[in-house]
Amino acid sequence: FLSGTSAQTDGDPYSLHRTSRNQQTPHKHRVARNAVGGGVAIGTLPDNMTRVVEDSQRYYRWQSFGPRDRRTEDLWVDLSTLQQGQVRIHNILSNTHRQAARVALSFDFPFYGHYMRQITIATGGFIFTGEITHRMLTATQYIAPLMANFDPSFSKNSTVRYMDNGNLFVVQWDKVRLQDREAEGPFTFQAALYSNGTIVFNYRVVPLPVEKINSTEHPVKVGLSDAFIALLPSSQLSDTKRRTIYEYHRVEIDTTKIVTRSAFEFTPLPTCLQHTSCDLCLTSNWTTGCGWCNTLQRCSDGIDRHRQEWLDYNCPEEAKGTCEDYNQGGPDGSMGSFNHSSPGPTPSSGVHEDQQTTEVLQTGPPNHTGITENTAIIAGVVAALVLLVGLTLLAVYYINTHPTVAPPFYLMQRRTNNYWPSMKFRNQGCHSSYAEVELGGHEKEGFIEAEQCC
């Protein structure tokens, strides 16, 4: 089913809805939860979104295969037959519960038309695909073969392993058990990401029907989801903006078809983002609803991860034009359109005036007064650098001679060589959430999703 609601809270078992889009709708947004401290909120899409019952398969086309289908066995990637160096067992994820860790890809993986080089693998049977990490990882922007409350730390035989051969990335949750239901048996399943955008969910062992998995402590989801982040004015401070995540599409599959030796294959469909010219953008028969923004040199329907930039540069208005409008002026006409029609971060008129003044000074006769002013400026800069170096040396000397006072001790505690930090799942209050942590156990600063209990 498709509906106009967006990502619900992680503790909500009835959040299996997906959004449909209407290009003509005004962009009025309702914020579900406010974020504080420069955080990220989960919001809803416009009120008058079109509601349909039939799946439109706008971004992906998928098929399911049962135990008797040969395609199921063909899609399974047997990691046990590969060389030992090709398959990596993630030691942290294999020995912990409710954690996630970032992993770099060796190829550009297209997801909803966006190319990614980094993903986040979670012990809970899913992959987070967002660029910004926050506590609501299970809400949206995921690839979930079977999102549930798995606990790899229960048994030494439970592992989270992955492989990357340059064209294929596979994550396998091997012999993992549900927390507090370990007696039900181990699950073994995998998600395969191909360089052409194809995604495969394959289930080797499923001892329990998915409908019987409890979603109270952890959401239970199967499918794909993506969202964009928009900047909205904060209600508290007029000069600040709040980052809000809007889920614009979700793919859900029939969980009753998930049994032992079953599989799902998702084939990506063409998107507006793949068109690199105005002619292809507006005339292609493979896509609909696309518009060309000459300022950004981008084709889009306005609903993707670049939406905020699309709005900042006034692309909705620019996309109403035709390719002839941009071709008439040539390169100069394009630059003129960039300067005059774009409300985004374009050079201001004051900058142009300064540049013109500089040209006049350079073409005129030498000015001894200007030389004196330049000498004074250079002397001031040199004096500032000398002062900065002196303060730095003084600070280093103080830290070395007073290592036990609070500031040096804090700096020593914060030093870390952990380039890929992990994320830990926390169950606080009424919502379960993931939070990024360092190896030392300190919660990282950054994007925090404010949780409000109803």
Based on secondary structure, the structural category is alpha+beta
Strand order of the largest sheet: 1-13-12-7-6-5-4-17-18
Helix content: 10-25%
Number of helices: 10
How much of the sequence lies in strands comes to 25-35%
First-to-last CA distance: 26 Å
Question: What would you call the shape?
Answer: globular
Describe the structure.
The protein has 454 residues and is of the alpha+beta class. The chain has ten helices and 18 strands. The strands form three sheets. It has a nine-stranded mixed β-sheet with strand order 1-13-12-7-6-5-4-17-18, with no helix packed on it. Strands 2-14-11-10-9-8-3 form a seven-stranded antiparallel β-sheet. A two-stranded antiparallel ribbon has the order 15-16. A hairpin with a 4-residue loop joins strand 10 and strand 11. The radius of gyration is 27 Å and the shape is globular. The chain starts with 39 loop residues before the first strand and ends in a 17-residue tail after the last strand. Mean pLDDT is 74; it is low at 1-55, 329-370, 408-432 and 435-454.
